[in-house]
Write a structure and sequence with these properties.
Layout lengths: L1 H20 L2 H12 L3 H10 L6 H9 L7 H13 L6 H13 L9 H17 L9 E12 L5 E12 L4 E9 L10 E6 L1 E9 L4 E12 L4 E9 L8 E6 L5 E8 L7 E7 L6 E7 L7 E6 L5 E8 L2
Parallel strand pairs: 1-9
Antiparallel strand pairs: 1-2, 2-7, 3-6, 4-7, 5-6, 8-13, 9-12, 10-11, 10-13
Helix pairs in contact: 1-2
């Protein structure tokens, strides 16, 4: 069947070219065509990977009408690489390049790809600690973070205070995550259990700057019990810091973020921002005035929503 063989060769060549140069939707369409899979079969394979994506969404993705943005959609892209027998990270890379081209506001080093890579690493580290990717048995009522920017303009450290309520019996720990700035060394960071907890297992991943900390409570909670605990991370292992971002997987309680600068290293301006997902454009920008005596800025969100929230700053 020379005609069929020739057609397959052309489809393979088109796929190779699309994977090298993109864009994402062309590569996805070429991959689906090369494997000869109708979208209904692709959807079926995704469901077997535990990912739900509609046929309409898949059609939009391969037409370029929409791009995967939500966490579930990004998990689908990773699964598609396996289902369509593509090199690991090949589709994710094209998504990252497209996002970097259309998001000039994102600071250097904080690329979409870095967030995606970190999210995959985080899942593996949480699995090592036998921790589910859900809420771990508690709802957050309040979370206050204090960030210190040092004299070298580096992320010197942070302190977090959590108020949580257990929604099942037997909760006795919390898994915290610290994501350092590009170039950081998680293995050189120091964790301090400051109040009502002690440090358990710690996991690190150098390339993505992720530090995962198991904090053991002083008591075992029953459903409905509230608990307050506090911990800190001494960082100071990376270069110049330009923002601090906190992601929220679901709606929750109050969140407060304070960033404090050394008197010898003050930024020229600061602002808050929101972001629906790592791939989405930033919005909600609001200038923040630096306090005179303590050289700090802050934001307060009475009730957080799913997405990302942060403070950015500019140096001279």
């Amino acid at each position: 069947m020379p005609h069929a063989t020739q057609h397959a060769d052309v489809a393979t060549a088109e796929l190779d070219s699309a994977l090298r140069g993109g864009p994402f939707h062309v590569a996805l369409r070429a991959a689906i065509a090369a494997r000869g899979l109708p979208l209904q079969r692709v959807q079926h394979h995704l469901s077997r990977h535990g990912v739900r994506v509609g046929v309409t969404s898949l059609s939009y993705w391969q037409q370029g009408a929409r791009r995967p943005q939500r966490p579930e959609s990004l998990r689908a892209v990773r699964a598609l690489e396996e289902i369509l027998q593509l090199p690991e990270e090949s589709l994710i890379r094209l998504l990252a390049e497209a996002d970097e081209d259309t998001s000039a506001e994102r600071p250097a080093g904080r690329s979409y790809r870095a967030y995606v890579e970190a999210s995959g690493v985080l899942d593996r580290l949480l699995a090592e600690l036998d921790h589910p990717s859900s809420d771990g048995g508690v709802h957050t009522l309040g979370h206050h973070e204090r960030i210190r920017i040092g004299p070298r303009r580096e992320l010197a450290g942070r302190e977090s205070q959590h108020i949580v309520r257990a929604h099942r019996d037997g909760v006795d720990r919390f898994v915290a995550v610290h994501h350092g700035d590009p170039g950081c060394a998680p293995a050189r960071m120091t964790v301090h259990a400051l109040e009502n907890c002690r440090t358990g297992r710690v996991r690190t991943h150098h390339d993505t700057g992720v530090l995962v900390i198991e904090l053991l409570f002083d008591t075992r909670l029953r459903a409905g019990d509230t608990y307050l605990f506090r911990y800190g991370v001494e960082d100071g292992t990376a270069g110049v810091s330009r923002e601090y971002v906190r992601g929220f997987g679901s709606a929750g309680g109050q969140y407060a973020l304070q960033v404090r600068f050394e008197a010898a290293a003050l930024p020229v301006r600061c602002h808050r921002f929101t972001q629906h997902s790592p791939a989405a454009p930033r919005g909600g920008r609001q200038e923040l005035a630096l306090s005179g005596r303590h050289h700090s800025v802050h934001l307060v969100e009475p009730r957080v929503r799913s997405g990302m929230l942060g403070i950015g700053w500019d140096w001279e």
